[in-house]
Specification:
By secondary structure, the chain is mostly beta strands. The radius of gyration is 17 Å and the shape is elongated. It contains 2 helices and 6 strands. A 4-stranded mixed sheet has the order 5-4-1-6. A hairpin with a 4-residue loop joins β2 and β3. The termini are far apart.
Length: about 90
Amino acid sequence: MKDDIVIEYPTAGATYGRDEYGVYSYGEYPGSSVLAGQTRRSFLGSYATLEETRSNHPGASWHGNGSGFVEQPVPETPPAWLDPTAIGERWTDD
């Protein structure tokens, strides 16, 4: 499946927020990730103007102002492939 490339304004994430146009790739975390099946959002770049952004990412879509950032929760239970004896750690904090 091909990722969607999206222009967002303002550019924002868990630890940053700027009055710039950000370009992000939206896809899905693979089955080998603890976030498997959840939406993956990857930062590709930021620009001062929409025109500059579109020039550098001509195939990106623009849906108007707003950030698509969503905090990704870690699942309550580990994925089926996790072998705690192989990594020497537990999934829970208890």
